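As the next step, I wrote out a protein sequence along with its fold in token form, included below for the reader:
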Amino acid sequence: MKTVLLFLTLASFTLAADRVVPREGTEWCNIWMPNANKHNLPRVLLIGDSVTQGYGPDVEKQLAGKAYLARLATSRCVGDPALLAELTAVLGAESFEVIHFNNGLHGIGAVSEKEYAEFLPQMLAHIRQLAPKAKLIWANSTPSHVNGKFEQLAPNNANVTERNRIATELMKKEGIPVDDLYALTLPHPEWCSDGLHYKPEGKAAQGAQVAAEVLKLLPAK
């Protein structure tokens, strides 16, 4: 029954779209929900993309014994009804004490920054509607480098910094702390494994910063 309801939810969001949604050649979604049968610790959710998926295990190690860590990594960009459906599926399955979320690297070139500024508040409102008690942390997107020449920023990094500016302004207005992973990562091109993803040392550094921000909002034992 739950599977049927999930498919109906996904379908309803997709059919509700009143515009042509720009899509990548391959869209994907990875939901990770360990310790689903345990209830001794608070739950934390990471929302993001493949970068989030990369540092997720390091965050999980840092939070071991303090919180159960789940994550939703997806290629969907803001403005895509399928993103809201994926959020509904995860936020409807569990209650979370802290939600650390990001969206920004996907959709560059398909969704303008003007549209990004319009659609990001919709994502935030959807999370707040489904998880009204959760404490939120926004994560700025990491830099876009030229693959193979990591000391050089890619031309579309200008889109990344503009999206980070838009998001930071919104989160400041909404009283949501910002985890600036862009500032952490920018001085370390040696962490890059390609133009967008990171070697183990980069993932570990990002994971440590994310975990530290999350721990600030977790209740004391």
